[in-house]
Amino acid sequence: MNKYWSETIKGIAPYVPGEQPRAGRLVKLNTNENPYPPSPEVLEAMKAAVTDKLRLYPDPNCSRLRETASRHYGVPAEQIFAGNGSDEILAFCFKAFFDPGDTILFPDITYNFYEVYGELFGVSYRTVPLTESFEVPIEGFFTDNDGVILANPNAPTGKTISLEDIEFLIKRNRQAVVIVDEAYVDFGGESSIGLIPKYDNLLVIRTFSKSRSLAGLRIGLALGQRNLIEALIRVRDCINCFTVDWIAQAGAIASLEDTKTFTHYIGRIAATRSRMTEHLRESGFHVIDSSANFLMMSHPVIRAKALYEALRERNIFVRFFPKPRIDNYLRVTIGTDEEMDIFYDALMDIVMATNRLLPESEQTPNPGD
Ligand SMILES: *Cc1c(COP(=O)(O)O)cnc(C)c1O
Questions:
Q1: What sign has the CA pseudo-torsion 17, 18, 19, 25?
Q2: Which cofactor does it need (predicted)?
Q3: Residue 14 within any structural domain of the chain
Q4: What is the 218 CA–ligand 1 centroid distance (Å)?
Q5: What confidence tens digit (pLDDT) does each residue in 82-117 have?
Q6: If you measure from the C-alpha of residue 356 to the centroid of ligand 1, how many angstroms do you get, rounded to a whole number?
Q7: Measuring CA to CA, which of 57, 206, 233, 269 is 20 to 30 A from 303?
Q8: Same domain, 250 and 272
Q9: Do 80 and 28 have their domain in common?
Q10: Ligand 1 site, residue 33, Cβ cutoff 6 A
């Protein structure tokens, strides 16, 4: 804390990303990165973009990228906004659609950045509690509000909201913007993009960080009718007109064009996800059905914090959120099959070692079988 800081910055608790450990051999399943490499065509396109042209500012409107995205998503290019990762676009949304004193709604368990942006931009929020089984109760959002943000699939639960529910909410909420953050939709669930022509209060946010293996490149898109896109452009042009550099624009275009690599790795992650879910359940874990590239799990006896720490000692990094309602869960990113086997074997070791210390009545039934 420092006397020169603004009151906002003194008071804020910034978002805490998962650790980026530097140790050599480790299994990193804590930030929902994709374990597979980006398409080789992306790397080629980016190398080809390293030329004298870097002397020039990049195209602020990302025209070629938006035209490619337009063909890919079936949405006119003028209804697409490209930004430096979807977090940046979400931050722009808070300035574009909400005023200080407004009250927006999002679930009590969801992506933590929504709360952080609310604090930073002075936008009030009310959280709507998920049900016992972590479903989004859509009626909970049918109350006065100046905006709604939903992650679909939700994070860190991996649960989806049906398209019917989303549309119902958009219809009931025509006075304000409904933002649907589809960071994980490529791994499962239904996209709301098809609803854009019908509703001028729907904004869909996408990222290249998870399903396209490009977290390091920083590319996100917003899709919505022109009224919403224009507001985002205004905010951007009040902060930094050149948010997406030439190299990133070239890489993002190539990523959208290479559907084959994309589909292949998405399929692998989905297969690993179902295999792991099944194994963990057989070993007594409670695992939430996930439509994303991570699993949310808890053990009937051993606390999540203890598992998290024991895994960490073995250089296996997963995510643990010391927050109400989810502080007995681990969120584990789906890695390669090899990484998941290392994780699973370590977990079984930890469960068995802990079991030996417990009275028989409290032991886990057939750990590791
Ligand atoms: C990872 C994630 C993002 C951020 O994506 P970037 O494009 O890397 O900024 C946004 N929303 C949710 C729900 C995420 O999990």
A1: negative
A2: pyridoxal 5'-phosphate
A3: no
A4: 10
A5: 999 999 999 999 999 999 999 999 999 999 999 999
A6: 40
A7: 269
A8: no
A9: no
A10: no
87 lines ligand 1 (CB under 6 A): yes
Q: Indicate whether residue 111 lines ligand 1 (CB < 6 A).
A: yes
Q: Give domain status of residue 265, yes or no.
A: yes
C-alpha 113 to ligand 1 mean position (Å)? 9
Over residues 110-155, the pLDDT tens digits come to 999 999 999 999 999 999 999 999 999 999 999 999 999 999 999 9
Structural domains of the chain, count: 2
**Residue 361 in this model has a pLDDT that exceeds 70:** yes
* Whole-angstrom distance, CA of residue 35 vs CA of residue 272: 11
**C-alpha–C-alpha distance, residues 62 and 205, integer Å:** 16
The angle subtended at Cα 209 by Cα 207 and Cα 213, nearest 5°, is: 130
* Domain of 326, in residue numbers: 19-34+260-351
* Nearest atom of ligand 1 to the alpha carbon of 111: 13
pLDDT, tens digit (0-9, with 9 covering 90-100), for 57-76: 999 999 999 999 999 999 99
Cβ-contact 315, 23 below 8 angstroms: yes
Which one-letter amino acid corresponds to residue 131? T
Looking at the fold, whether 23 and 95 belong to one and the same domain comes out as no
Q: Which atom of ligand 1 is nearest to the CA of 32?
A: 1
167 lines ligand 1 (CB under 6 A): no
